[in-house]
């Protein structure tokens, strides 16, 4: 009988994960035992405190470079991305916790009630929001933290499920337009399940591939795969097939074309705070994993995957940019913009060396803050039926509420990559190393699609400022303190990262080295 | 005194002013206007001090200052001015107060915030000054792009007919050019050893293929900005829709960024590619001269007409740049200044006419000179200056461009000269149809047309007229500043002027 030996565990190194997971479990207990009216006041501070405590632990760990538990790699990219996920999710939690805009917040109590049935309408009108959103979000954050630090594919798969399942549920909880919300959740779940299956199948093929290394043991940890790519005597068919299937699973989460079809529907149907959370944090997690898989495990096969992944990047940019032009709903527009941004991020992933890595990580943080601020504004523009997301309703907003229109204009300029915003710096941060690495075609595709993408952003600006307000122009709700805080953080981050990006770039450069 | 950080203070000052003006209450528009005017005069005073401090025989780049910005990428806040930049900075500093004064009542008709209009003008001044003062390619790019934003809102929020369409078209055209340039900027950074410093980059050797692509990236951006044929279609729309003051800045200064960029970046950084592409650039410039002039003749909208004349003038500047002689180059730079003064004046005067009549159509005027003789006189003067009548400043520059080109490329010079004839046609015909001839009876019923230039408007046009005449007779102070910079640029390109062929003259006289 084989003796199992407990691998050495560096508890300090995985403290952020433990704190978040602990808080999530605690959140479930709160939901079970605390009286209903007290749940929200308890849950929100609990979740926020946990995130801040975890963030503190990440900062404390800043110089750690270990592989602990055998499967968790705590290194520069892990810590940087964990920090990013935690910081962004803190802002997202502020949006999730907002109760001043609408009674019970953006969520219903029970997702499972048939949409548009009398019960459903009653709960949408009167019932308080589900307190479960907090533990669900916290679980998702925990899963993301593991996802970016996973050092083998199996751990990565489990983390993928841990953060995906809560997200599927959260998508179904929108208070308004229930049918869209439930449809979004269903679609996301089904397609997500497929993507997970692809990932799992690829994992199995890769295991088979690593088995051909003579006396070395087969495995799916990244060091073994890395060694197998260099030494294996097996036919590379298994490697290529496995690599492709794993990539599909990850690209699905990253919202890259042609695995993007879920994005517009889910972004539109999900409660807006959750959309913001997905656009910011899921992106960080998915690209964190992509970076680790392709920079560590498959590094030796760079020549093989670059053309394919490059084609995916170009396709993603083109699809995102071109389809964004035709959108009439602000959430769908932002969804396609998010797809295009996934393309730019892929350019960064393909850029070789630490510059590409640090550029991509910078991009993730900068984009995350901007997109959260954008969705924060979307939650504010509303009428009696909830958020007014159709673009025609935004006409003349600049006249009705110049402050929020200015803020949103600034955000759109950042998306368009105008200098003095973080959008410009982050584009530069991924394009420069890509060009340096000889991928001029990717940069040219990026620049061309940026031109196309500028048009839909500009159209919104024109709508807000240059059109006369119509009868249907909704007013902007005065935001509660939490949304204001999220908005201010997002906008200030966009401005500061655009004007003085030096410190964060330094941090990203210092962190751009994987442990192997 | 020379240690004073002139350029950064000059660039930052209007921005501070803009913030102050923007914070003024909407209920007190006059105060906002006065503060904006005062602030722009302050900037003018500072630039005059710079002009006086400038050492004509000194280094090519003066007032250099540099502060680190993004050390990871080697980006610095580096400001430095050569003679060309100094002249353009002066032009901006002179034009902005006049434009503010000329636009005194422009913002009121639009039902939008008056302080915001003047704040935007000051932001625009900041970015325009920055774009000419920057000596770091990254910094230049930043100003180049940010410049779009205030102009976009000036056109879009305060413009006339079709302002939305014009504003979006302006923004998209410029952004497209800017993104091409971004790709080239990144490429330059990669091949140039990860630095953005202009001086360091000008000494880098680039392979022929890469050099041509990079040249093209920059050139397209500048050709759209200038604009050269066939990238010009945004200008008549933008110029036609913008409020007159903003249009004067758009055509008078903003478009010069294009030609300035070619002289400062395309030629010295990519000298071989510049020579390789020169025939094409010359061809575009020539087409622009003739084509835009023909279109100008046919325009019925005054502001669009002036916009088209500008495109023709930019053709001349393009010819002067790509002839690669010191004379033509000096002529081109001088043309940039003089065109700013003359077309700026023309736009402002046309704006005054339009404000009185309430229409921009030439056919709505006729015999206006009988009602507003002084205004008609100024219009005639501005028109004559812009067709380069001897005695006005543009004549000197156009003449320099043509003789400088003639020494090296006779066909181009001859074709360009045709443009002068067309210029006479469009200017004189426009003047004739608006102010001369029988009085259009409809005009007498409009109260505005009975008021000739008031004191404010006289103060606006007087300095411009004085400068145009002064520089027409005595351009030496300006050419002294420009000449060394142009010579240095030509040396960067590696072209020397053809030696004057004295022998043949002697033989002929024998």
TrEMBL record, chain A:
Q: What reaction does this catalyse?
A: a quinone + NADH + 5 H(+)(in) = a quinol + NAD(+) + 4 H(+)(out)
Q: Which UniProt keywords apply?
A: Cell membrane, Membrane, NAD, Quinone, Translocase, Transmembrane, Transmembrane helix, Transport
Give the EC number(s) listed in the UniProt record: 7.1.1.-
The record lists the membrane-crossing segments as 12-30, 42-60, 66-96, 131-150, 156-176, 188-209, 237-262, 274-294, 306-326, 333-354, 360-381, 402-420, 440-466, 478-500
Q: Which residues form the NADH:quinone oxidoreductase/Mrp antiporter transmembrane domain?
A: 150-451
List where in the cell it is found. Cell membrane; Endomembrane system; Membrane
Q: How does it sit in the membrane?
A: Multi-pass membrane protein
Top EC category: translocase
A Gene Ontology biological process in which this protein takes part is:
ATP synthesis coupled electron transport
Q: Which GO terms describe its molecular function?
A: NADH dehydrogenase (quinone) (non-electrogenic) activity; NADH dehydrogenase (ubiquinone) activity; quinone binding
InterPro entries from the entry?
A: NADH-Q_OxRdtase_suN/2, ND/Mrp_TM
**Gene Ontology CC annotation, any one:** plasma membrane
Report the main location listed first in the record.
membrane
Q: Which family does it belong to?
A: Belongs to the complex I subunit 2 family.
Write down the PANTHER family for this protein, in alphabetical order: NADH DEHYDROGENASE
Q: How does it assemble?
A: NDH-1 is composed of 14 different subunits. Subunits NuoA, H, J, K, L, M, N constitute the membrane sector of the complex.
Record's function text:
NDH-1 shuttles electrons from NADH, via FMN and iron-sulfur (Fe-S) centers, to quinones in the respiratory chain. The immediate electron acceptor for the enzyme in this species is believed to be a menaquinone. Couples the redox reaction to proton translocation (for every two electrons transferred, four hydrogen ions are translocated across the cytoplasmic membrane), and thus conserves the redox energy in a proton gradient.
Report the protein name in the record.
NADH-quinone oxidoreductase subunit N
Top-down, what is the taxonomic lineage of the species of origin? Bacteria, Bacillati, Actinomycetota, Actinomycetes, Micromonosporales
TrEMBL record, chain B:
Which part of the chain is the NADH:quinone oxidoreductase/Mrp antiporter transmembrane domain? Answer: 134-419
Tagged with keyword Transmembrane helix: yes
Can you say where in the cell this protein is located?
Answer: Endomembrane system; Membrane
Query: Chief location of this protein?
Result: membrane
What membrane topology is annotated for this entry? Multi-pass membrane protein
Q: Which GO terms describe its cellular component?
A: endomembrane system; membrane
Q: What keywords tag this UniProt record?
A: Membrane, Transmembrane, Transmembrane helix
Is this entry keyworded Membrane? yes
GO annotations under biological process?
ATP synthesis coupled electron transport; electron transport coupled proton transport
Q: Name one Pfam family in it.
A: Proton_antipo_M
Transmembrane parts of this sequence: 6-24, 36-54, 74-102, 114-132, 138-158, 170-192, 212-235, 247-270, 276-298, 305-326, 332-355, 367-391, 411-431, 459-475
A single Gene Ontology MF term assigned here is: NADH dehydrogenase (ubiquinone) activity
Q: Which domain of life is it from?
A: Bacteria
| InterPro entries reported for this sequence | NADH_Q_OxRdtase_chainM/4, NADH_UbQ_OxRdtase, ND/Mrp_TM
Q: What family does this belong to?
A: Belongs to the complex I subunit 4 family.
Q: What is this protein called?
A: NADH-quinone oxidoreductase subunit M
Where does this protein come from, organism-wise?
Micromonospora sonchi
């Amino acid at each position: 009988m084989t003796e199992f030996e407990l691998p050495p565990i560096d508890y300090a190194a995985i403290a952020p994960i433990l704190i978040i997971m602990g808080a999530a479990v605690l959140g479930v207990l709160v939901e079970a035992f605390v009286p209903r009216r007290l749940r929200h006041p308890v849950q929100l501070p609990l979740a926020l405190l946990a995130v801040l405590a975890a963030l503190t632990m990440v900062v404390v760990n800043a110089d750690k470079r270990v592989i602990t538990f055998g499967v968790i790699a705590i290194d520069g990219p892990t810590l940087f991305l964990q920090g990013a996920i935690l910081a962004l999710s803190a802002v997202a939690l502020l949006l999730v916790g907002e109760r001043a805009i609408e009674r019970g917040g953006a969520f219903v109590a029970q997702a499972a009630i048939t949409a548009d049935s009398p019960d459903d309408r009653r709960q949408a009108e009167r019932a308080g929001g589900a307190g479960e959103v907090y533990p669900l979000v916290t679980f998702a954050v925990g899963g993301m933290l593991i996802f970016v630090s996973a050092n083998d594919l199996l751990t990565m798969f489990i983390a993928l499920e841990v953060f995906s399942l809560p997200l599927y549920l959260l998508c179904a909880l929108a208070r308004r337009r229930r049918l869209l919300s439930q449809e979004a959740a269903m679609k996301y779940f089904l397609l997500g399940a497929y993507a997970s299956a692809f990932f799992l199948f690829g994992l199995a093929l890769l295991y088979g591939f690593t088995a051909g290394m003579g006396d070395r043991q087969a495995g799916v940890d990244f060091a073994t795969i890395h060694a197998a790519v260099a030494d294996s005597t097996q036919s590379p068919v298994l490697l290529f097939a496995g690599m492709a299937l794993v990539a599909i699973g990850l690209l699905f989460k990253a919202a890259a074309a042609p695995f993007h079809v879920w994005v517009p529907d889910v972004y539109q149907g999900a409660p807006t705070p959750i959309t913001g959370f997905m656009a910011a944090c899921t992106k960080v997690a998915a690209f964190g994993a992509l970076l680790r898989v392709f920079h560590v495990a498959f590094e030796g096969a760079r020549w093989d995957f670059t053309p394919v992944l490059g084609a995916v990047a170009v396709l993603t940019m083109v699809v995102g940019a071109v389809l964004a032009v035709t959108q009439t709903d602000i959430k769908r527009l932002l969804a396609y913009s998010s797809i295009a941004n996934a393309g730019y991020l892929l350019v960064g992933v393909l850029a070789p060396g630490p510059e590409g890595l640090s550029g991509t990580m910078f991009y993730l943080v900068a984009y995350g803050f901007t997109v959260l601020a954008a969705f924060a504004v979307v939650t504010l523009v509303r009428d009696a039926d909830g958020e007014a997301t159709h673009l025609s309703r935004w006409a003349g907003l600049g006249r009705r509420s110049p402050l929020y229109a200015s803020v949103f204009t600034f955000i759109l300029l950042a998306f368009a990559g105008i200098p003095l915003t973080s959008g410009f710096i982050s584009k530069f941060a991924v394009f420069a190393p890509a060009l340096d690495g000889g991928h001029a075609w990717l940069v040219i595709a990026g620049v061309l699609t940026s031109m196309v993408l500028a048009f839909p952003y500009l159209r919104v600006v024109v709508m807000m400022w240059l059109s006369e307000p119509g009868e249907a122009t909704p007013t902007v709700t005065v935001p509660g303190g939490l949304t204001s805080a999220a908005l201010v953080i997002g906008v200030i981050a966009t401005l500061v990262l655009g004007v003085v990006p030096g410190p964060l770039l330094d941090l990203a450069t210092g962190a751009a080295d994987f442990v192997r | 005194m020379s240690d004073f950080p002139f350029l950064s203070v000059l660039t930052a000052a209007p921005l501070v002013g803009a913030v102050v003006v923007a914070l003024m209450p909407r209920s007190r528009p006059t105060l906002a206007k006065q503060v904006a005017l005062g602030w722009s005069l302050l900037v003018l005073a500072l630039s005059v001090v710079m002009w006086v401090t400038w050492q004509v025989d000194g280094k090519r780049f003066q007032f250099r200052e540099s502060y680190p910005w993004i050390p990871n990428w080697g980006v610095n806040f580096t400001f430095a001015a050569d003679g060309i930049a100094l002249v353009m900075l002066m032009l901006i500093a002179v034009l902005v107060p006049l434009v503010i004064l000329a636009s005194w009542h422009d913002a009121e008709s639009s039902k939008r915030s008056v302080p915001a209009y003047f704040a935007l003008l000051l932001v625009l001044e900041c970015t325009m000054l920055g774009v000419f003062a920057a000596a770091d390619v990254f910094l230049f790019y930043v100003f180049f792009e940010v410049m779009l934003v205030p102009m976009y809102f000036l056109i879009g929020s305060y413009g006339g007919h079709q302002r939305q369409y014009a504003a979006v078209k302006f923004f998209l055209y410029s952004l497209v050019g800017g993104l091409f340039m971004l790709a080239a900027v990144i490429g330059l950074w990669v091949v140039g050893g990860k630095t953005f410093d202009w001086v360091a980059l000008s000494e880098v050797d680039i392979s022929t293929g890469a050099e041509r692509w990079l040249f093209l990236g920059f050139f397209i951006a500048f050709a759209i900005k200038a604009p050269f044929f066939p990238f010009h279609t945004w200008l008549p729309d933008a110029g036609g829709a913008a409020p007159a003051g903003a249009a004067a800045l758009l055509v008078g200064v903003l478009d010069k960024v294009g030609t300035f960029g070619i002289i400062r970046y395309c030629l010295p950084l990519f000298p071989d590619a510049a020579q390789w592409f020169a025939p094409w650039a010359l061809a575009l410039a020539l087409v622009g001269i003739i084509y835009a002039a023909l279109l100008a003749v046919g325009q019925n909208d005054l502001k669009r007409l002036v916009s088209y004349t500008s495109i023709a003038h930019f053709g001349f500047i393009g010819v002067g740049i790509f002839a690669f002689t010191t004379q033509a180059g000096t002529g081109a730079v001088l043309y940039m200044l003089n065109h700013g003064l003359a077309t700026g004046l023309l736009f402002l005067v046309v704006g005054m006419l339009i404000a009185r009549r309430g229409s921009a159509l030439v056919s709505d005027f006729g015999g206006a000179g009988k009602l507003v003789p002084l205004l008609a006189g100024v219009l005639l003067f501005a028109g004559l200056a812009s067709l380069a009548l001897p005695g006005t400043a543009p004549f000197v520059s156009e003449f320099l461009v043509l003789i400088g080109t003639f020494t090296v490329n006779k066909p181009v010079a001859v074709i360009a000269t045709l443009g002068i004839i067309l210029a006479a046609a469009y200017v004189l015909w426009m003047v004739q149809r608006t102010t001369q001839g029988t009085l259009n009876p409809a005009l007498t019923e409009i109260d505005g047309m009975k008021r000739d230039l008031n004191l404010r408007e006289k103060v606006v046009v007087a300095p411009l007229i004085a400068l145009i005449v002064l520089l027409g007779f005595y351009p030496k102070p300006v050419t002294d500043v420009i000449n060394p910079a142009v010579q240095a640029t030509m040396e960067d390109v590696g072209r020397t002027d053809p030696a004057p062929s004295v022998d043949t003259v002697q033989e002929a006289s024998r």
